[in-house]
Amino acid sequence: MLGEARKTQESPSLLALLFTDGDGRIVFVDSNFLKMMDYSEAGLAVGEPLYKILGIERQICSKMMQTVAQNGFVHNWPLELQSSTGKPTAVTCTGIATYDERHTFIGMDMTIRVQTSTEPPNALPPHHRAVLNTRIRQIQTEVRSHEDRALKTYTVAQIGAVEILLARMAGPRINQTLEQSLNKLAAQRASGFHIQNGHVVFDEAVLDPNIYLTLLKEVHRYAVGIVGRRMVISEMQAVDEQVDEHSREIADQAGLREFISQRG
């Protein structure tokens, strides 16, 4: 399944990603989306209604969300977005439904692709895990340090996925306390780590592997206290499954995979 998912996906540089909650509020946008829509930082979009940030009519957005909730996905849905500066952009969108453990709709994973006359439509991501895979590949290109790229990628991917889960279950602003705690821990360790609105930045230095373990411990502790162990572990397992085998081995050696176990 993983091999099939990777074959159907395009280069992450061609796609913009955003994630919503079940009410159509944005809980995360990637850097490609910020560039596409002329936003200077993610905080301007997080917590806002999807239709407002996309610059489309509310009814159109509601229809798309309802279709995703009812059918599980929409594929190559054509839209004309209007950026924050008024620039129109013709795109196609694919939305994948996400559900909680009771199979209640909790949000949409959305991939956005600029329409061109020479490029074919993007293939259909079959599942939430395929979108996670695209996000992980984005992170890999963003991490500049080669020696501990696997640890940084694994940590950033897990933090991001858990934050999206928390925002979907408890509201987009629930992560402010978590991010403050993570930034405080990182400052104490002089780790060159900073997170804001789900966007994690590490400096280029090679770090003590224990800092990654410290950060994930805090993320796990905080999230379990809000949405419960089962949902947190399920989402972290989904991320773990999309990471390549070599990165999993390195993460395992650093103790980072202990959180995907029911005993974690």
Structural write-up:
Helix 6 (149-170) runs parallel beside helix 8 and helix 7 runs antiparallel to helix 8 (209-227). A 5-stranded antiparallel β-sheet has the order 2-1-5-4-3, sandwiched between helices. It has a two-stranded antiparallel ribbon with strand order 6-7. With 264 residues, the chain is an alpha+beta fold. Strand 1 (16-20) and strand 2 form a beta hairpin. The model is unreliable at 1-8 (pLDDT under 50). It contains 10 helices and 7 strands. The chain has helices at residues 2-8, 31-36, 50-54, 58-71, 128-142, 149-170, 175-188, 209-227, 229-242, 245-253, and strands at residues 16-20, 26-29, 73-82, 88-99, 105-114, 193-196, 199-202. The chain folds into 2 domains: 2-131, Beta-Lactamase; 144-260, no CATH class. It is globular. The longest helix has 22 residues, at 149-170.
Low-confidence stretches: 1-8
Q: Which CATH class of the largest domain?
A: Alpha Beta
What is the N-to-C succession of helices and strands? HEEHHHEEEHHHEEHHH
Give a short account of the largest sheet. 5 strands, antiparallel
Number of domains: 2
Strand content: 15-25%
Number of strands: 7
How far apart, in Å, are the first and last alpha carbons? 26 Å
Superfamily (CATH H level) name of the largest domain: PAS domain
**Major sheet: arrangement of strands:** 2-1-5-4-3
Mean pLDDT: 89
* Structural class by SSE content: alpha+beta
Number of helices: 10
CATH topology of the largest domain: Beta-Lactamase
Q: Compute the CA-based radius of gyration.
A: 18 Å
CATH architecture descriptor name of the largest domain: 2-Layer Sandwich
Helix content: 40-55%
Described by its quaternary structure, the protein is single chain
Shape: globular
